[in-house]
Design the sequence.
């Protein structure tokens, strides 16, 4: 190699090192990319948003001291913003992937009600088994926490109990992981009885292996004359430590919650069975969190469900009736949003809710096309589809937020996903095309009949006009109304006595 080529290689390596070093401290510059940058959060079709006003009535505020001099201020303690520092590993993928992951963690932290002060990313092939971060980076994190005055460290992964304890011993502040953060958001936003039970079950499943004891001072397991270093008489007793009592109580509570959730399941199945019995097609809206699922539901049905520029703003499923341009009715179900590395506890706890997706006739997979990594969103959501056996359901990719997206990105995704439609729930762009795609994809009336209905059974004619039936032709004759229609099987059985009675009227 010539000297010029050698120097070019050196410059390229040095540039990569500089970029990696700057990433460790500057990954949080700018707005968290998991949140939308649009100035308007709602449209006229979103309704009054009273639920959102109630949620924001007790929004946490910055600048409130945790050291309260006046005891009367204690009621405001819950409004204090936690001050957090983020930490993550860049073990695979590109630098941009690591930055996007940490920005998403920042958005999660903001949604949970905290103030993000700084963030660190370490280039490392695998986590340290003791402290997750390397020893040097953990000490650097301790200095950042001390300099910023943070009271919490949030790690962009699920920590083992030993890793959490080891990192807390170094940084001297509370350490939580990504899973605990998501569970906290779910606990804040769950409103229905079933949703609260599902979140509590997921939290207890997460907490059970992470209970921390208080050393041997509370242990009462002596084990007879050979236990407890030979401490025989006087040491025999209840034989159960405090931590084991806590574990037993948690398991008892988990069993009760599972029974409660199982008892709620028949009601949801009954409603689903009623829709199946009446053969109403069901469409499930699914996708990454904050992709605009609730906004699309409001745009199509004027449901007025809560819409907020935050992650996991809505958890409880909402089902509304809608119709295609030619009058075929169907149900739209808004489901909980997904996220990269969605905790397995939540997938299991919300399985009864996610069954709405698996049992649907069509999935509207909403993607935030203005996000820096929309392909990553699609992959993460489809992984959850696989876990709930929903990959067999027909799927339409809805590329939302097109008004704020790069046209080249939109075109790239349209080529990658042939069955897609570009929309903007905020402006209404593409909604007519989306409705037409739904109309072409849902099960339609398939039984063709020729009917002659007497005039004294006008109620049946009225029912055909009001129900999901395609009226191809209609004429009035001397003996009654002649119709050529397409209906579903259930209605065809009811209309069977009126088939082939008389010929088609003339004129």
Sequence:
């Amino acid at each position: 190699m010539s000297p010029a080529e050698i120097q070019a290689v050196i410059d390229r390596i040095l540039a990569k090192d500089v970029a990696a070093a700057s990433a460790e401290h500057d990954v949080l510059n700018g707005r968290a990319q998991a949140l939308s940058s649009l100035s308007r959060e709602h449209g006229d079709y979103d309704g009054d948003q009273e639920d959102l006003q109630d949620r924001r009535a007790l929004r946490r505020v910055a600048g409130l001291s945790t050291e309260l001099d006046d005891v009367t201020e204690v009621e405001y303690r819950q409004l204090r913003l936690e001050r957090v520092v983020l930490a993550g590993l860049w073990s695979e993928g590109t630098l941009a992937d690591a930055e996007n992951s940490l920005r998403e963690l920042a958005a999660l932290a903001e949604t949970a009600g905290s103030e993000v002060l700084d963030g660190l990313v370490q280039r490392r092939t695998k986590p340290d088994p003791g402290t997750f971060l390397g020893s040097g980076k953990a000490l650097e994190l301790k200095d950042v926490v001390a300099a910023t005055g943070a009271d919490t460290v949030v790690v962009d992964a699920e920590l083992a109990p030993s890793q959490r304890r080891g990192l807390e011993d170094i940084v001297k502040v509370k350490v939580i992981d990504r899973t605990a953060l998501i569970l906290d958001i779910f606990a804040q936003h769950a409103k229905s009885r079933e949703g609260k039970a599902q979140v509590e079950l997921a939290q207890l499943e997460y907490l059970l292996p992470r209970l921390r004891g208080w050393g041997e001072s509370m242990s009462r397991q002596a084990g007879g004359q050979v236990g407890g270093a030979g401490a025989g008489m006087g040491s025999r007793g209840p034989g159960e430590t405090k931590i084991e009592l806590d574990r037993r109580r948690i398991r008892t509570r988990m069993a009760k919650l599972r029974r409660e959730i199982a008892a709620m399941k028949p009601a949801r199945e009954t409603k689903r069975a009623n829709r199946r019995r009446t053969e109403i097609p069901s469409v499930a809206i699914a996708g990454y969190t904050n992709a605009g699922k609730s906004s699309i539901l409001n745009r199509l049905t004027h449901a007025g469900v809560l819409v907020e520029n935050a992650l996991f703003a809505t958890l409880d499923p909402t089902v509304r009736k809608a119709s295609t341009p030619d009058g075929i009715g169907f149900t739209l179900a808004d489901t909980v949003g997904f996220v990269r590395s969605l905790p397995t506890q939540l997938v299991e706890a919300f399985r009864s809710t996610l069954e709405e997706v698996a049992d649907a006739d069509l999935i509207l997979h909403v993607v935030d096309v203005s996000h820096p990594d929309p392909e990553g969103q699609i992959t993460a959501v489809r992984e959850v589809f696989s876990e709930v056996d929903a990959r067999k359901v027909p799927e339409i990719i809805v590329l939302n937020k097109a008004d704020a997206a790069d046209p080249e990105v939109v075109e790239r995704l349209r080529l990658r996903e042939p069955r897609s439609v570009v929309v903007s729930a905020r402006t209404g762009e593409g909604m007519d095309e989306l409705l037409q795609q739904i109309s072409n994809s849902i099960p339609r009336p398939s039984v063709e009949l020729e009917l002659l209905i007497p005039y004294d059974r006008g109620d049946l004619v009225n029912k055909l006009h009001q129900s999901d039936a395609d009226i191809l032709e209609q004429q009035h004759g001397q003996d009654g109304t002649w119709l050529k229609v397409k209906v579903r099987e259930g209605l065809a059985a009811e209309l069977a006595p009126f088939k082939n009675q008389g010929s088609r009227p003339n004129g």
Remarks:
- The radius of gyration is 29 Å.
- The CA atoms of residues 363 and 395 lie 5 Å apart.
- The chain has a mean pLDDT of 77.
